[in-house]
Design brief:
The chain is mainly alpha-helical. The protein folds into two domains: 2-130 and 168-275, no CATH class; 132-166, no CATH class. The chain is 72% helix and 0% strand. It contains eleven helices and no strands. The chain has helices spanning 2-23, 30-70, 76-87, 90-123, 134-144, 151-165, 170-202, 215-220, 222-238, 254-257, 272-275. It starts with a helix and ends with a helix. The relative contact order is 0.22. Residues 126-130 and 251-276 have low confidence and may be disordered.
Length: 276
């Protein structure tokens, strides 16, 4: 769930920014670009904290795996003592998970605060998207109605799909950003709750043995955490890449040219994102 939330954030934020470019005829607005750049850097920084938290979780599970593999070499009392020592890691892990959750809540709050203004800006174009070339839409619709039984059709349909992807629905992208951030929030909340439970249940326990604490369960999820670390690292690099509007002839109409200046007066419709 964490990986899907992070990946969906990358794609939906890309579509949202691309949609704002399309609304303005493909021209980059200094204020909106600054807003998106800052948001991307903030998210990237927060994901760095998530990755660090995952590394801590991996170290915890790695120690559990080691104790599980070598448990036969220790007497019960000795093993319980080693378990207590590594369970002390649950305290710092709980603190780290709460910090990461708090940082993410700040991002969610900022996007939520700005959403009405993004909506207003996108709706000013009438549909929230710059019109796709009619030839693209017609060709794609025609190929969708044909049987896809040859490589040529499949390749052409793929190209048409990519052209359509250059003109995303901004309002749908905005909703997807919120959904992706919520998915990530839910995952981080679950991680924090796990460490809260571990810390509460085992911190300072007099005896830890038998069914009370299963080393094998922690050992199993070690590889899953490692996979999440790798995936999150790739997405952290991807989130800072800004989209470029598709190039086409006569891409600025008089309506597009005035789209920004006619909202909130003097082209300040996105100033709230920087100064509020």
């Amino acid at each position: 769930m964490l990986c899907s939330g992070i990946q969906d954030t990358v794609s939906s934020l890309h579509n949202l920014q691309l949609a704002t470019l399309n609304v303005n005829g493909g021209k980059k607005l200094p204020l909106s670009r600054e807003v998106f750049t800052q948001l991307r850097l903030t998210i990237s920084s927060q994901w760095e904290c998530i990755i660090e938290l995952l590394h801590q979780c991996f170290n915890f599970c790695d120690k559990a795996a080691y104790l599980h593999d070598t448990r036969c070499a220790y007497a019960d009392e000795e093993l319980a003592e080693y378990v207590r020592e590594f369970l002390a890691m649950s305290g710092p892990l709980l603190s780290s998970s709460r910090l990461v959750l708090s940082l993410h809540e700040g991002i969610v709050a900022e996007v939520t605060r700005c959403s009405p203004y993004f909506t207003s800006f996108l709706q000013h174009s009438g549909t929230g998207i710059r019109h796709r070339p009619a030839s693209v839409c017609n060709a794609y619709a025609e190929h969708c109605s044909k049987p896809r039984d040859t490589p040529e059709l499949t390749t052409d349909s793929f190209m048409q799909s990519n052209l359509l992807a250059a003109y995303p629905d901004g309002l749908a992208a905005l909703a997807s950003v919120a959904d992706a951030l919520q998915t990530t929030f839910t995952s981080l909340s679950m991680i924090s709750q796990v460490w809260a439970t571990v810390y509460e249940k085992y911190q300072g326990s007099a005896a830890i043995s038998g069914p009370q604490f299963s080393l094998s369960e922690w050992a199993v999820i070690k590889e899953l955490i490692l996979s999440s670390i790798c995936h999150s690292g790739k997405m952290k690099d991807a989130i800072i890449i800004e989209p470029v509007a598709p190039r086409c002839r006569n891409r600025r109409s008089s309506r597009d040219s005035d789209s920004l200046s006619s909202i909130n007066g003097g082209g300040q419709c996105l100033l709230f994102l920087r100064d509020a």
